[in-house]
Amino acid sequence: MKKTFVLPVLAVGFLIWFLATLAFRFAGQFFFITDSAAILTSLYISVIPALILISVLTFKRFKLSGLEIIVAGVLLVLPGMVLDTFVIQFFEQIYPNMPSSQAATFGSWLMWAYSVVLLTSIFIGLRQKNLNRE
Fold it and tell me: Which of 77, 61, 48, 72 is CA-nearest to residue 124?
């Protein structure tokens, strides 16, 4: 397994986290409207193809295969998972544009988004590893 992709993929994960954090800092009040089931449902659904695309493009960009893809999936979400621990703890200070009542919904959506990336990397990485065996 080549290790040249570790720091660049971590950097991609950090950049995605940073841009998403900025987006929610300035426009989060338009997304996490807990009174609207339609908006919440569309948020959960729309993140699936977006994160699958970002994940696959990252895997292709670094020419990863098999287990490297699974490692890359972990590396993509790791910066955000670590940093969002503090973001959620200090939700009101970081996101003054969103009421604290939206913190649970936001945290739930984050876990969903991280799960999408991890499941994508596991599915693609194991599938590719099995195809290479045959």
Answer: 72
- For 36-79, the pLDDT digits (tens) are 888 889 989 999 999 999 999 999 999 999 999 999 999 999 99
pLDDT digits over 77-87, tens only? 999 999 999 99
Where residue 89 falls (left for φ over 0; alpha for ψ -120 to 50; beta otherwise) is alpha
| Residue 36 DSSP label | -
- Torsion sign, CA atoms 93, 98, 101, 106: negative
Cα distance between residue 11 and residue 15, in whole Å: 6
Tokens of 40: 């919440």
CB 118 within 8 A of CB 77: yes
pTM for the complete prediction?
0.90
